[in-house]
Specification:
It is built from five helices and ten strands; from the N terminus they run βαβββαββαβαβαββ. It is α+β, with helices and mostly antiparallel strands.
Length: 239
């Protein structure tokens, strides 16, 4: 009988990654069944802890060598953002979707705050400020990032393209950017002094880009990313 396990995570991606690590196989070696899908979760329960469960079943005729070690991918280049490439009508639809959700969300949660929606060639920016907005940041921006994921899904409803949303709350992103740039400078000096590469903790693509951009002009160190989402990390090493 094929081996099956149930794994958990905050998202289906995280749950699957946890299961693959436990089985020590790659994704193509298992059949995956979502037992509890995060998409069924109410948009208004964002402040409630989320657990997604998936069942992973090993496919038949897997030899021992194929299960001994999961493949590891390395990407020796800085990641580039995807452009939203929305026309005026699509952009208007995105902004209407976001406005409707934010109005309903603040009303249901009885939150007092202001919001602003702007855009450029790459992203649609949602800024929350004043009142109780800071409650939506969470530890190290966890709640903020979860809400950004929800906003991204909502924003793209009714259009064929994916709108890339950047959510900021009380200038958290700018403060985080400054902290990451200071960290990048400090770790770069450490790499130069010791000659040993440094691997940072897992970060979102948006935050990894800040590290890459900060050190891209360095004459002595370089950066690249390793791993799979949501555990992707930046590595700083000597040139």
């Amino acid at each position: 009988m094929a081996k099956s396990i149930v794994a958990e995570g905050k998202t289906s991606t995280e749950a699957i990654e946890n299961g693959l690590k436990e089985l020590k196989v790659s994704k193509d070696k298992v059949d995956i069944k979502i037992l509890e899908n995060e998409d069924k979760r109410s948009f208004f329960s964002i402040l409630t802890p989320r657990v997604v469960k998936v069942e992973l079943t090993l496919k038949e005729r897997i030899d021992e060598k194929s299960t001994s070690k999961m493949p590891k991918k390395e990407y020796h280049h800085a990641e580039k953002p995807k452009k939203i490439s929305l026309d005026a009508q699509e952009l208007e639809k995105v902004k209407n979707n976001l406005t409707t959700f934010l109005e309903d969300f603040t009303a249901q949660k009885e939150l007092s705050m202001k919001y602003e929606i702007t855009s450029d060639a790459e992203y649609v920016y949602v800024t929350l400020k004043e009142g109780e907005a800071a409650k939506l940041i969470g530890y190290r921006g966890e709640t903020l990032n979860a809400m950004q994921t929800i906003l991204s899904a909502i924003a793209s409803k009714g259009i064929d393209k994916k709108a890339h949303i950047i959510l900021d709350i009380e200038d958290y992103r700018e403060k985080r950017k400054k902290a990451l740039e200071e960290l990048a400078d400090k770790l770069a000096r450490t790499v130069i002094r010791t000659g040993k590469q440094v691997t940072l903790e897992p970060m979102s693509a948006y935050e990894r880009k800040m590290i890459h951009n900060r050190l891209q002009d360095s004459q002595r160190v370089k950066t690249y990313s390793i791993g799979e989402e949501p555990y992707r990390k930046v590595v700083i090493t000597k040139k």
